[in-house]
C-alpha cells in the first residue's frame, strides 16, 4: 500500500503516469464519474484549510465516491487524548482512503505507518504539502506541454514559502530547467536549497530583487505572498511590498505565452486587473487541483488504468532505515506522541534527519 | 446564467413556473431522485444557520446530487484574507451551484458577479433571505390554492422582520390581496414599505395593535417573534409580549381554513397546544422549504422541465446600470472588499441605492 | 415506528436478530451497498463525538444512503432558543432517520416523542450510549460465538463508566455468565447495579482490586480508562494507575482465546505492545461498530430482511405509563425545555424514575 507524504514520494516515472492521468481526467472528467463508487474518503483536518479540503471532497465526489470527516479540531473530539496512530486505525474502519491536515510536522507520516488505508498528507505544519506541488506541476504541464526546458521565476517569500521549496525540488528532477529567484534580501531562497538541490542538478539560476527586471523571458512566473510578519523592520516591508505586486504594467514586460501561477489565497500581491489576462493561470490551477487529486485517489486506491506503483514510497524506504534517539523539534508529532521505533535517517547529503519532520539530529 | 439574490429576482411568470414545479415535486418527490446525479452543491455558510443549510443539503440529496462546503466561518479558513470574489471563483471549480450565507449585506451578489456557477443568497446579514420567501409562497399556495385574493395578517416584529418585508413585496405582485399589520407601536411596519409597496399596488391594509381583534377573517396568519432586545423599555416588552402569543383561545377566533405560518425557530410566540391544530402550517412549511429549494436548484441549473429563464435577474439588470461612489454602510460587503465598478442605481422611486446592500446613497 | 434510546430497548429476541444481521453484514458488506439508496441520515451532534459520528456516517454511506447534519453545537444555530422537540420536527422534513448526541440527559428520548422519523441515541450526557453496547455485544459474539456462558472481567472505572453499566445490564439477560469487577476501592461498581441487576439474575460475581489476579480464566476482558479527576486523592491515583494498565506481562496470564475490548479512545491504560497480540479486539470493535450501526439503521427503517419489531420499545412502553411532577435533575432535558406530560414511572424495583433521565423522584 502506498501513501503520499512527501512531494518526492513518487518517482519521476510514477509522477509522469499520475500527471498523464490528470490530463486525461481534465479532458474528459465525465469518464471517471463512477470510478470510486462505494469508496469513502475521510478528510481529517486537525486545522481548517477550506480550499484544500473542498478540493479533495470535490475530487472524491467527481469520482462517484463519498466523503466523511471533520473540518477542524474544534468541532472534533479526536484531539482529546487520542494519538494520531490510534485515530487512523479507527478511521481505517470507516473509510477507504484518508487526507490528513495537521498542525504538527510528520503527523501524516505517523498516521501512514499505522494505517490500513492510503494516507495523503494535506499539509503538516510548515513542513510539506505535496498535493499543492502536484497541482502546480499539472498546471505547468497543461499550459506549456512539458515540465522540462522551462525558465521559471519564483517571486515573493522564498525563504519560508514551502510551496516554492517543494516545486524547486520537483522541477529539479527534469532536464534543462532554469530558475530565477525574485525576492527581497530578507526573504531569499535558503542556501541549503541552492547547495543541496539546485547546484547538484546543474540548474542555471539567478537571484534578483526586482520583479520587473526578471519578467522578460520567463515561461512560468510563480507568485507567492509576502507576509508583513516575516519582516523584522516594518518600514522595510512598506518600502518593498509594491515591488512584488504583479500588475498590468509588469505583465506587459512578460512573454505572450508565459503562465502566472499562485498557490492562493492571494491578498493583494496580484492586482485584480491581471485576472482577465489570458496568462493568469491561478484560477485554472484550482481546477487542476481537483483533477490531480482525482488522479491521486485513483492511483493510491489501485484504480488507475496504468500499471502498479512501487511497493513503498521513497520517503517510506528511507524511514525504514532510521535509527537513533527521539526528535527535539517541538513542532514534531513525535514530541506529542510516544514513538517506539528509531527516528533518524541520513538524507542525500549524509545529514541525519528525523523521519517525520526532517529536522537535523541535534 | 441566473442567480437568486433578491426575493424579487424572478418575474411573476418565472416564479409561477418555479412554484408549480415545487408543487409537482411535493406531490411526487421520488420522480426527481436522479435529476441532479453527478451535480454538486456548495454550502458556503460564513455564519451558522443550520435549518437553512440542512434544507439546502436535503434538497440536493433528494435530487441525487451531492454536497460539500462549510457550516461556519470558525471551521473555515476562507475568511482569512481571501475576498468573496476570489472564493467563489475557486468554488466554481469545485461545485455546480452554491448557496451562500454571509454576515455582510450584498456578499452573495458580489459572489454572483464573479461566479461561473449559479449563486443562491441563503441570507446576507439583515438584508435578504429569498428562499424563505419562496418557502412562504409555496406554503400559502398549497394551503389556499392561490397567491391572490387573500387576506393576510402579519403579526409580531414588523419593523425589523425581513421575512415579513420580503413577503409583503412578493404578495403585492398578486391581485386582490389585503394586508393586516399586527404589532406593538414600537415595531410597526416601516413607512417606506407602506408608501413604496403597499399603496402603489392599491392594496387595502390596516394597522392594528391586537392579535385578537384581527383574527376573525384572516386567510393567512404570518407569525414572527418579538425580541426583547428590540424594546427600549423592558417594562413595555413585559406588558406586551402576551398579546402577541398565539394560543388556542385566539385560534378559536380564526376561520376554519386559515393557515398559520412562521419562519421558525419559534420560541414561545406560538403555544405548544397550537401545534396539533390542523391550521398550524409551520412544520409543513419546513417541508415545503425543501421542495421549493429542489425546484430552485433544478431551475438555476437549467434542468427544470419548463422553459428557460430570462438571461438576467431583475436585480442584475438593475445593477448593470449602476454609477457612482463607494457605499458607506459599514455592514456592506463593498466596505470589506475593494470594488472596481460603480455602485449606485436608482430604485423604483428614483432613490439611488447601493447595488449590493440597497442602502441609500449618503 | 421504533427508536433506540436505551440499551435495553430491544427484547433479547429482537437483539438476536439485529446482531445476526450485523454478523451477516460483517461477512458480506457489499451485499448491502444499495440497501438505503435515496435515504438520508441526520447526525445531530450537539457536542462533538467524532468517532461515534463517523461510525454512523460510514454505516449510512456503506448502505448507499447519504448524510447531513452538524458535528458540534458551536457550528450550529440549533441551540439558539429552539427546543429539541421543534428541531426534530424540522429534521423529520429533511431526513429519514436521525442520530442524536446531546449533553443533556433524556434529550434523544424527548426528540423521539416528537419525531416523525426513527431517532437513535448517540449518547446523552452521562446517561446512555446504546450503540456502544451493541458494538460491544457484536464483538463478543464474533470473537466467542455466543453471549452466554462467558466469564467477563470489567476493569477500570466501574463507578462512573456508563459503557460498563450498560454492558452489565445487557449481558445479565443471557444465561450462565459470570462477572469479575476489577477496580480500585474508590471506583467500585455501584451497589445498585449489583442489587438490582446482577443478583436478581443469579449471576456469580467477584469484586477484586488487582487485574493480575483476575486474568487467569477470563473469556472477555473489558478495559476502561481511569480518569485522574475521579480521585479525591491525587497520590492515590498515582499509586494505583499502574495496576490497571494492561501490558504484555499481564497478557501472558490470560487465556489464549480471551478477547480484550475497550470502548476507545484509550490513553495509556493499554500498552502499545498489546496492540499486536491477536487477543486485542479493540480496533476490530471499531469496525464492528460500523456493521452493527448498519444493521440498526436497516432495522429501524424497516428494511431488515427478518421480521418486524414490536410496535414500541421497552422504554417507550414504560414512558407511556408515567405520572407526576417535573424532574429536578439539573442535567435533564426537561429542565431546559417545558414538558407538558407526566414524567415519573416506577422501575423494575418500584422506584419512581424520570422517564427521560432515570433519576429518582426526589
From TrEMBL, chains A, B, C:
<feature type="binding site">
    <location>
        <position position="52"/>
    </location>
    <ligand>
        <name>carbamoyl phosphate</name>
    </ligand>
</feature>
<comment type="function">
    <text>Catalyzes the condensation of carbamoyl phosphate and aspartate to form carbamoyl aspartate and inorganic phosphate, the committed step in the de novo pyrimidine nucleotide biosynthesis pathway.</text>
</comment>
<feature type="binding site">
    <location>
        <position position="162"/>
    </location>
    <ligand>
        <name>L-aspartate</name>
    </ligand>
</feature>
<feature type="domain" description="Aspartate/ornithine carbamoyltransferase Asp/Orn-binding">
    <location>
        <begin position="150"/>
        <end position="299"/>
    </location>
</feature>
<feature type="binding site">
    <location>
        <position position="80"/>
    </location>
    <ligand>
        <name>L-aspartate</name>
    </ligand>
</feature>
<dbReference type="InterPro" id="IPR036901">
    <property type="entry name" value="Asp/Orn_carbamoylTrfase_sf"/>
</dbReference>
<feature type="binding site">
    <location>
        <position position="225"/>
    </location>
    <ligand>
        <name>L-aspartate</name>
    </ligand>
</feature>
<feature type="binding site">
    <location>
        <position position="265"/>
    </location>
    <ligand>
        <name>carbamoyl phosphate</name>
    </ligand>
</feature>
<feature type="domain" description="Aspartate/ornithine carbamoyltransferase carbamoyl-P binding">
    <location>
        <begin position="2"/>
        <end position="140"/>
    </location>
</feature>
<dbReference type="GO" id="GO:0016597">
    <property type="term" value="F:amino acid binding"/>
</dbReference>
<feature type="binding site">
    <location>
        <position position="264"/>
    </location>
    <ligand>
        <name>carbamoyl phosphate</name>
    </ligand>
</feature>
<dbReference type="GO" id="GO:0006207">
    <property type="term" value="P:'de novo' pyrimidine nucleobase biosynthetic process"/>
</dbReference>
<dbReference type="InterPro" id="IPR006131">
    <property type="entry name" value="Asp_carbamoyltransf_Asp/Orn-bd"/>
</dbReference>
<keyword id="KW-0665">Pyrimidine biosynthesis</keyword>
<protein>
    <recommendedName>
        <fullName>Aspartate carbamoyltransferase</fullName>
        <ecNumber>2.1.3.2</ecNumber>
    </recommendedName>
</protein>
<dbReference type="Pfam" id="PF00185">
    <property type="entry name" value="OTCace"/>
</dbReference>
<comment type="subunit">
    <text>Heterododecamer (2C3:3R2) of six catalytic PyrB chains organized as two trimers (C3), and six regulatory PyrI chains organized as three dimers (R2).</text>
</comment>
<dbReference type="GO" id="GO:0044205">
    <property type="term" value="P:'de novo' UMP biosynthetic process"/>
</dbReference>
<comment type="pathway">
    <text>Pyrimidine metabolism; UMP biosynthesis via de novo pathway; (S)-dihydroorotate from bicarbonate: step 2/3.</text>
</comment>
<feature type="binding site">
    <location>
        <position position="129"/>
    </location>
    <ligand>
        <name>carbamoyl phosphate</name>
    </ligand>
</feature>
<dbReference type="Pfam" id="PF02729">
    <property type="entry name" value="OTCace_N"/>
</dbReference>
<keyword id="KW-0808">Transferase</keyword>
<dbReference type="GO" id="GO:0004070">
    <property type="term" value="F:aspartate carbamoyltransferase activity"/>
</dbReference>
<feature type="binding site">
    <location>
        <position position="51"/>
    </location>
    <ligand>
        <name>carbamoyl phosphate</name>
    </ligand>
</feature>
<feature type="binding site">
    <location>
        <position position="101"/>
    </location>
    <ligand>
        <name>carbamoyl phosphate</name>
    </ligand>
</feature>
<feature type="binding site">
    <location>
        <position position="132"/>
    </location>
    <ligand>
        <name>carbamoyl phosphate</name>
    </ligand>
</feature>
<dbReference type="InterPro" id="IPR036792">
    <property type="entry name" value="Asp_carbatrfase_reg_C_sf"/>
</dbReference>
<dbReference type="InterPro" id="IPR006130">
    <property type="entry name" value="Asp/Orn_carbamoylTrfase"/>
</dbReference>
<dbReference type="InterPro" id="IPR006132">
    <property type="entry name" value="Asp/Orn_carbamoyltranf_P-bd"/>
</dbReference>
<dbReference type="GO" id="GO:0006520">
    <property type="term" value="P:amino acid metabolic process"/>
</dbReference>
<comment type="similarity">
    <text>Belongs to the aspartate/ornithine carbamoyltransferase superfamily. ATCase family.</text>
</comment>
<dbReference type="InterPro" id="IPR002082">
    <property type="entry name" value="Asp_carbamoyltransf"/>
</dbReference>
Amino acid at each position: 500500500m502506498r501513501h503520499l507524504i512527501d512531494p518526492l514520494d513518487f518517482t519521476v516515472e510514477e509522477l509522469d503516469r499520475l500527471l498523464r492521468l490528470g490530463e486525461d481526467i481534465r479532458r474528459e472528467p465525465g469518464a471517471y464519474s463512477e470510478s470510486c463508487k462505494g469508496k469513502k474518503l475521510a478528510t481529517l483536518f486537525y486545522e481548517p484549510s477550506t480550499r484544500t479540503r473542498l478540493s479533495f471532497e470535490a475530487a472524491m465526489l467527481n469520482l462517484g465516491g463519498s466523503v466523511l470527516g471533520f473540518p477542524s479540531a474544534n468541532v472534533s473530539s479526536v484531539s482529546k487524548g487520542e494519538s494520531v496512530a490510534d485515530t487512523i486505525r479507527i478511521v481505517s474502519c470507516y473509510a477507504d482512503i484518508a487526507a490528513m491536515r495537521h498542525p504538527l510536522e510528520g503527523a501524516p507520516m505517523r498516521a501512514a505507518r499505522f494505517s490500513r488505508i492510503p494516507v495523503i498528507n494535506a499539509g503538516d505544519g510548515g513542513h510539506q504539502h505535496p498535493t499543492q506541488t502536484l497541482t502546480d506541476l499539472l498546471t505547468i504541464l497543461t499550459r506549456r506541454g512539458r515540465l522540462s526546458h522551462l525558465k521559471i521565476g519564483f517571486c515573493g517569500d522564498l525563504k519560508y514559502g514551502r510551496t516554492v521549496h517543494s516545486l524547486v525540488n520537483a522541477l529539479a528532477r527534469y532536464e534543462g530547467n532554469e530558475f530565477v529567484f525574485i525576492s527581497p534580501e530578507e526573504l531569499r531562497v535558503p542556501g541549503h536549497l541552492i547547495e543541496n538541490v539546485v547546484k547538484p542538478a546543474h540548474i542555471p539560476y539567478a537571484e534578483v530583487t526586482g520583479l520587473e527586471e526578471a519578467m522578460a523571458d520567463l515561461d512560468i512566473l510563480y507568485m507567492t505572498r509576502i507576509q508583513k510578519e516575516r519582516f523584522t523592520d516594518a518600514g522595510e516591508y512598506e518600502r518593498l511590498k509594491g515591488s512584488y505586486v504583479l500588475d498590468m504594467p509588469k505583465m506587459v514586460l512578460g512573454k505572450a505565452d508565459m503562465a502566472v501561477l499562485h498557490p492562493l489565497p492571494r491578498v493583494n500581491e496580484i492586482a485584480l486587473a491581471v485576472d482577465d489576462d489570458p496568462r493568469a493561470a491561478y484560477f485554472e490551477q484550482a481546477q487542476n487541483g481537483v483533477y490531480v487529486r482525482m488522479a491521486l485517489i485513483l492511483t493510491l486506491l489501485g484504480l488507475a488504468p496504468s500499471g502498479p506503483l512501487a511497493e513503498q514510497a521513497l520517503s517510506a524506504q528511507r524511514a525504514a532505515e532510521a535509527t537513533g534517539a527521539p526528535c527535539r523539534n517541538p513542532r514534531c508529532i513525535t514530541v506529542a506522541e510516544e514513538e517506539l521505533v528509531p527516528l533518524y535517517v541520513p538524507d542525500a547529503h549524509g545529514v541525519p534527519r528525523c523521519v517525520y519532520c526532517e529536522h537535523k539530529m541535534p
